[in-house]
Amino acid sequence: MRKLLKREVTEQNRICAICRREFTDYNDVVPDHKDPKGMGGAWRDDHPDNIQAAHRWCNGEKGSTRMDD
User: Is residue 67 part of a domain?
Assistant: First the structure.
């Protein structure tokens, strides 16, 4: 998962997928499920297409909701 997360950070140009602010401390970066279990996604669906990089606090606030692209 760490390798996937590092790739996502690079692909997102070091920008959080939720708040759109730059990552300054990579210890605060966590994987976020675009299609979370709480919204009908598979249990811990860690497929690369379902993962995006986000700040720990942004992910916590988002919870089990989907983001509209």
Answer: no
pTM higher than 0.70: yes
What would the pLDDT profile of 11-24 be if each residue is shown by its tens digit? 999 999 999 999 99
Question: What's the burial of 48, exposed, middle or buried (CB within 10 Å: 0-12/13-18/19+)?
Answer: exposed
How many domains are there within the chain?
A: 1
51 residue type, one letter? I
Give dist(CA 9, CA 39) in Å, integer.
24
Q: List the domain range (segments joined by +) for residue 25.
A: 2-62
Does residue 68 lie within any of the structural domains? no
Report residue 50 CA to chain centroid gap.
9
